[in-house]
Amino acid sequence: MRAAAAAAGTALQGLFAVYKPPGMHWRAVRDTVERHLIKGLNSLQRPEPRQQICFQPTVSEKEETGKELTLTVSRVPMLADHPLVSGPVFTELKIGVGDHLDMQSSGVFVLGVGYGTKLLRKWYNAHLTKAYTVTGLFGKATDDFSDTGKLIERSTFDHVTQEKLERIVSVIQGSNHKALLQPPPSRGFLLRRCYSPPKESKEPESDEPLCFTKSRANPRHWTMRQSMGSDHQQPLWRAMLISLILAAILLWCYLRPETEADRRAEEFLQFLQNMPQQEMPPSVPLGEDEKKP
């Protein structure tokens, strides 16, 4: 059964086109096609289920002993191959889509099944000629540029003529043809244009001290925001909160009652102040020898 299903799935490969109606999402079209294909594949006739040997008890009547229970060998279909047990053979298909169409647009919608999903990339790179038909209504403007959008502006269109429309269309066509025929810029040109080597800082030739007011370390030229970046700048409310917390901690340290640890620390500091300093022996100046007796 699995081999037959695989053969049926292998035969269903390639590219095909369907019509997408307006007002329907392209994903809904794809799901609808997939659902009908899966339904058609599962409706194919299934192969006969596999047979298995089973020993079934049977009752036979004899004149001497009466009824006797015996085992007979028989072939029965496997329950694992029954449709109610195994379920549908196909549950999903690999279907790819070509160019996506908008919700309100209608036209040819290319789909690929199986190996056709890999051909979609080649079909896209072929740049085949496509024809589009655009319809519009003069004198009205909507928020989403569609006929179902909210009307935001209304005006007269008596000044619009066929000559003006053809002139605008010819300008659009000329710009599009020029963009198609113009070769893309080389990658090396883009790299040379976007990349500029860093400027080397000039080292002073002399060893004289530099003037602070003319250097880059001058506060007029250097700020914390420039050194750490704009992302490290703290907002005003966070700075005020930190300042209030530090002020509260200092005020608590000043007004809190004196403890035993404070008295021991004060006695230790007084002991260090009253400790006599040891007299150090005079040092011998460099370059002078010691006097011998």
UniProtKB/TrEMBL annotation:
Which InterPro entries does this entry report, sorted A to Z?
PsdUridine_synth_cat_dom_sf, PsdUridine_synth_N, Trub2, UQCC4, UQCC4_vert
Q: Keywords, A to Z?
A: Membrane, Transmembrane, Transmembrane helix
Query: GO molecular function, one example?
Result: pseudouridine synthase activity
The signal peptide here is: none
Q: Which domain of life is it from?
A: Eukaryota
Please give the name of this protein.
Answer: Mitochondrial mRNA pseudouridine synthase TRUB2 isoform X2
Q: Which Gene3D superfamilies match?
A: Pseudouridine synthase (3.30.2350.10)
* Domain spans labelled Pseudouridine synthase II N-terminal: 92-178
Keyword Transmembrane helix in annotation = yes
UniProt record similarity statement = Belongs to the pseudouridine synthase TruB family.
Please cite one Gene Ontology biological process associated with this protein: RNA processing
State which residue ranges cross the membrane.
Answer: 236-255
Query: Which PANTHER family does this UniProt record tie to the protein?
Result: PSEUDOURIDINE SYNTHASE-RELATED, PSEUDOURIDYLATE SYNTHASE TRUB2, MITOCHONDRIAL
